[in-house]
Structure formats: structure tokens, C-alpha cells
TrEMBL record:
It comes from the Bacteria. This is Acyl-CoA dehydrogenase. SUPFAM superfamilies: Acyl-CoA dehydrogenase C-terminal domain-like, Acyl-CoA dehydrogenase NM domain-like. Keywords: FAD, Flavoprotein, Oxidoreductase. Belongs to the acyl-CoA dehydrogenase family. One of its GO terms (molecular function) is flavin adenine dinucleotide binding. Its cofactor is FAD. Residues 186-310 form the Acyl-CoA dehydrogenase/oxidase C-terminal domain. The lineage of its organism: Bacteria, Bacillati, Actinomycetota, Actinomycetes, Mycobacteriales. Gene3D superfamilies: Acyl-CoA dehydrogenase/oxidase, N-terminal domain, Butyryl-CoA Dehydrogenase, subunit A, domain 3.
Length: 342
């Protein structure tokens, strides 16, 4: 997926080259993903670890369009690394709260009333966890060493760390943050996952086009069979729809600096489209690849499994479908067109 505005071509080429070279050196990663320290150090040296951070706090001062290209590059090359969680979520929240920054690798979580957060990305491999909890009817945030928590390791379908984090918050103190900031944290995560899903779908489509063009069966390439053409065409249409919806949400977020009243609806559309597109693209891709697509040696699973995993994080497909349904019902017959076109 390409961001809907021009990002310096040299920058995007450099991002892609870093992840491509990493894959060539290390090959596919089997089992639970780990954050490669050599890759992380290289990304840090290039200013990509805190790409969107404010320059006065040690960041590179870039924007969401550049971040979208970075997220896309990592997902497109099948490299599992917590850049988005570190920069776009945890580091942003520290800046929002006016808290100091250091060189620790970060993730973020929101604890429930029992002091538990589930499915926290990369918690078991983070140095610190930027933690949010409710205290006296106000959200507070603190930057806490990961050793402070009880962490139960887990993973998503793509074997990325998704851990259960628990802590006793009674004795903790934190810096107050607004409810709107915490909602934005969730929406940021939702948009990140939409970007990642779209990048994975585009790569799945590329692999499928290449396979059907190169694979010969019954004396002709698979791409010459009408049934295969229909499968690939459906994949392309669904991936394009998801990409367009995600670009619309990204553009609105950047244009309004996350202040648009319509932004949550646009993100809901993006996540719904991406979630449903993942079903079609993954199913059709495995159909056109046949048995080879189910093997560990073939790269297809490096993108199909993450696409299915990411579509269920920061809100499931059902959650975002329900959000759209509620918005449509509240608008009613007389206002539904305005809801769609505003």
C-alpha cells in the first residue's frame, strides 16, 4: 500500500532495502518472533525507530505518511519488528503526557479495573511498557520497567508476541491524560493494523500473480484458465478496496491531526474493508497456489497468517462492522447519504 501523498522516493527505497537485506541475511523466522537487536540498532541509526517523534525529544520529526511507508515496508518483506508499537503508540503517548524519553524499546497497554491487559504486543520483549490505567475517574500514564509486571507470554496467529500483562496499580502514580488521548491511542492502533493488513494483501496478490503466470498446467500457464483469472481478479478488487478505504482514513487523520469528528467512522470503514478483504484474498491465494502454498518453504504463509492476525487486533472485524451498523442506524434513512459522503 502506498501513502496517498508523495513521500521521498529515496526514503522509501532505503526502508525497503533495509528490510530486504535483513531477510536475505537471516531468511524466514520460524516460531515466535523476536526483535533482532542488530536490525533494531540499524533502524535506530537510520532514524527509523522514532521516525515520527519530535526532534526536540530525539525523534526524526517525520509524519504519518512516512510512517505508513515504513509499516508497509516491514510487512511487505515479512519482517516482524515492533516499530509501530514503539513509535506511533508508546512514544507518542509519552510525548502527549509530557513525560521524558530514553532509548528503551517500548510498547503500550491499557490496564483494566483488575490491573490486567491482554494481547499486549511485544510486552515480553520490551524494555519498558507505557502503561495506562484508570485512577479516580481519570486516565493516568506511566513509563514502567517491564520487570515491574507479571507477564504471561502469548502469541497471535502470526507468532508475534501478544502477552498478558498484570500489575498492582494501587501504589502507582502516573501523569493524567485525557480520555480523548486514550481513544486516539486505540484508533492509532486500529489504523496501524489496517495499513499492515493492506501491505500483506498486496504482497499476497503479487505472489499469486507470479505463481499463476509461471506455473504451467495442462500445457498452459494457470493464468490462462478463466476460473483462476476470476480468483485473482477478486483478490485484486478486494485488496484495492481495502487500500482505498485505508488511504482515506490516513489522509483524514493527517489533514485534521486526528481531530476530525468523522475519523472514527473512516477508520471503521477501513478496518471493515480490510478485514473482509483478508478472508477473500487469503482463501483465493491458497486456492490458486494449491499444495505448495501450504508448505513452510513457500513464503505465502508469511503474509496470509499476519493478515488474518492483524485484522483481529485493536478491534475485531465484528467490532468494526458493528460500529458501522450503529452509525448507519443512528443516521437513519434521511441522513445516511450525508454520513457516507461527508
Amino acid at each position: 500500500m502506498h501513502a496517498p501523498t508523495t513521500v521521498d522516493a529515496d526514503l522509501t527505497d532505503m526502508m525497503s532495502a533495509v528490510f530486504s537485506a535483513h531477510r536475505e541475511r537471516n531468511g524466514p523466522e520460524n516460531g515466535m518472533a523476536t526483535c533482532d537487536p542488530t536490525l533494531w540498532a540499524q533502524l535506530d541509526e537510520l532514524g527509523l525507530v522514532r521516525l515520527t517523534g519530535r526532534e526536540e525529544t530525539g525523534g526524526s520529526g517525520a509524519g504519518w505518511y512516512e510512517a505508513a511507508e515504513l509499516v508497509r515496508a516491514a510487512a511487505s518483506h515479512g519482517v516482524r519488528v515492533p516499530l509501530a508499537e514503539h513509535d506511533l503508540l508508546a512514544s507518542w503517548l509519552l510525548e502527549e503526557a509530557g513525560l521524558p524519553m530514553d532509548d528503551a524499546r517500548l510498547t503500550a497497554c491499557v490496564l483494566d479495573e483488575k490491573g490486567v491487559a491482554r494481547g499486549v504486543p511485544w510486552a515480553s520483549q520490551a524494555d519498558k511498557i507505557v502503561t495506562v490505567w484508570r485512577k479516580n475517574d481519570t486516565y493516568v500514564v506511566a513509563d514502567l520497567e517491564s520487570t515491574f509486571f507479571d507477564i504471561t507470554s502469548g502469541s497471535n496467529l502470526a507468532d508475534e508476541p501478544r502477552d498478558v500483562v498484570s500489575a498492582d496499580t494501587i501504589a502507582l502514580s502516573g501523569t493524567p491524560v485525557s480520555d480523548s488521548a486514550i481513544r486516539q491511542l486505540f484508533l492509532r492502533g486500529a489504523l496501524i493494523r489496517a495499513l499492515q493488513v493492506c501491505a500483506a494483501l498486496d504482497r499476497i496478490l503479487d505472489l499469486s500473480v507470479a505463481h499463476t503466470t509461471e506455473r504451467v498446467q495442462f500445457g498452459r500457464p494457470l493464468a490462462r484458465f478463466q476460473a483462476v483469472q476470476n480468483l485473482v481478479a477478486d483478490m485484486a478488487a478486494e485488496a484495492s478496496l481495502a487500500r482505498t478505504a485505508t488511504e482515506a482514513a490516513l489522509t483524514e487523520a493527517v489533514r485534521t491531526q486526528w481531530s476530525s469528528e468523522n475519523l472514527e467512522l473512516l477508520i471503521a470503514v477501513a478496518r471493515s474493508c480490510a478485514g473482509h478483504a483478508a478472508s477473500v484474498v487469503v482463501r483465493n491465494a491458497h486456492q490458486v497456489h494449491g499444495a505448495i502454498g501450504t508448505t513452510r518453504e513457500h513464503r505465502l504463509h508469511e503474509f496470509t497468517q499476519p493478515a488474518l492476525a492483524w485484522r483481529s487486533e485493536f478491534g475485531s472485524v465484528h467490532y468494526w462492522d458493528d460500529t458501522l451498523t450503529t452509525a448507519a442506524l443512528e443516521a437513519g434513512c434521511e441522513n445516511i447519504w450525508g454520513l457516507i459522503t461527508r
